[in-house]
Amino acid sequence: MNRLPGTSTGRFAGFAALLVGIGLGRFAYPPLIPALVKERWFSAAQADYLASTAMAGYLVGAFFAGHRLWKPGPSVTIRTSMIVASASFVTCAAPLSFSWFFLWRLLAGIAAGFLMVTAVPGIIARTPPEKRGRASGIIFTGIGAGIAAAGAFVPVLARSSLAGAWLGIGIASLVLTIAVWRYWPRLAAPLADQLTDSGSVRFGLAIALLIAAYCGAAAGFAPHSVFWVDFIARGLHRGLTSGGRYWVLMGFAAAAGPTIAGSVADRVGFSLSLRCALLFEAVGVGLPVFSHAVASLAISSVLVGLMSMAIVTLAAGRVSELVPVSGQKRAWSWMTMGFSIVYAAGAWGLSFVYAEAHSYSPIFAVGAAALIVGAFLEAGSSRAASAAGMNLM
């Protein structure tokens, strides 16, 4: 395998791509929802619908990015996606029609899906095996950094000027896009042949179980990513400010999670690291069932933040171990789509559970159980890979 030209450059470019496309493109919107409703740009239902629109777009982007009928090369795809993600904020800086916002939130989601599926496996595949953990960690830190920045700064900007908040995020994204613009042809050109699926790659039991485990992580992440702030603010009657603080804490933990996970994986392997991360997150998700103390809520926020992004990092690294280079893009596409579908279904299903039970405890219990099941599925994937003689680095 040829070494990726400019390994550190590749890591920074991947970090910037995920920060723009997902960290900001997807996760900077939720903190804007209260301001959108307060300023009467949209009703609460419309604002929430726009959030789900981005998730639908993410699924569409992940599907087409991993399909062999998609012709544009990695460089064109990544550059275009970063521009679209950045433009999606600038174009929404004025209270225009709902259909206008719908279009751009959909495009932002599609761009995020393309960036996740195209940029990540490409850079990891060209990184020496002994450094893939660290490389994955740096790349996926972009998502956590976006979550942390959105939680810390977007509400402040929105209180001063909602239009200014949209423009500020858009300008920041454009600056990052320009900063890595010239690197993509050099980074992506050697990957075009390697990452073009021939259609002959077949995924066995080990990959099927790994995808199922990753879907378990999606179901386990839904309780905190959807209900956490509301649980603290209304469920525990501690107010929106208190809920926001725990969200910021979770965001900063998410920013640190990928790098920590990558360093651990370089030492003990992706499989064991992924299994442990699933179990640690299960503890974090299940903790609110037993305790509502400040320390328990803080530990829960940190564990879920750390492990949720760690799991994404470790799953991507595990794919690079189990799948030939020619099939990694497609495998990561299936994993991304599976995660998106289960996450969306989990969010809807848990909302139904809450409506019926009028309690958050079953929500967190179900999420913790899904993560535990995911850990067992990953163990099964590891055994299947061992039986098949696959790489178990």
Describe what you observe in this structure.
It is a single chain. The chain is mostly helical. It has 15 helices and no strands. Helix 1 runs antiparallel to helix 5, helix 4 packs antiparallel against helix 5 and helix 10 runs parallel beside helix 14. It is globular, with a radius of gyration of 20 Å. The N terminus is likely disordered.
Structural class: mainly alpha
Radius of gyration from the alpha-carbon trace, in angstroms: 20 Å
Strand runs, count = 0
Shape: globular
> pLDDT under 50 segments (min length 5)?
1-6
Largest sheet: none
Look at the structure and give the mean pLDDT: 84
Q: What is the N-to-C order of secondary-structure elements (H for helix, E for strand)?
A: HHHHHHHHHHHHHHH
| Estimated helix fraction | over 70%
Cα distance, first to last residue? 16 Å
Determine the strand fraction and express it as a percent band. under 5%
- The number of helical elements comes to 15
Give me a quick take on this structure.
With 393 residues, this protein is mostly helical.
Which key features would you list for this structure?
393 residues, 81% helix
Secondary structure blueprint with pairings:
Blueprint: H1 7-24, H2 33-38, H3 44-65, H4 74-90, H5 98-125, H6 132-160, H7 162-180, H8 184-188, H9 191-194, H10 205-235, H11 239-268, H12 270-290, H13 294-322, H14 325-357, H15 361-387
